[in-house]
Design brief:
mainly alpha; 6 helices
């Protein structure tokens, strides 16, 4: 575990749980090729803030890394709806691309 992740985990261990902290830990886990750990953090991030579109985006990536394209699609579709509701055009665009790629892969 890298020093930044250790500090973030220590913060979580003190009880200062937020969706942003869980998202950041999930992103760090994905960056470290630990999709199962990322999944835990990102599921919690989306539970803490169901409208956190970027967390849904990463949750889909974690699900795909764990070879669960159906769950990835569900996460990305939920994230897309959240991003559209918030007017977050960049996330809408990214999730649209991810969903199109998934469609091509599943043929």
């Amino acid at each position: 575990m890298n020093p930044m992740t250790q500090r973030l985990q220590a913060l979580l261990d003190t009880g200062k749980e937020t969706a942003l902290l869980r998202y950041t830990l999930g992103k760090a886990a994905l960056d470290d090729a630990q999709p199962a750990t990322a999944l835990e953090h990102l599921l919690r991030a989306t539970a803490l803030d169901p409208h956190y579109s970027v967390a849904w985006k990463l949750l889909g990536k974690a699900q795909l890394a764990l070879d669960n394209p159906t769950a990835a699609r569900q996460a990305w579709e939920h994230g897309l709806a959240c991003a559209q509701d918030k007017g977050d055009a960049q996330v809408v665009k990214e999730l649209g691309v991810f969903l199109k790629r998934l469609d091509k892969q599943q043929g």
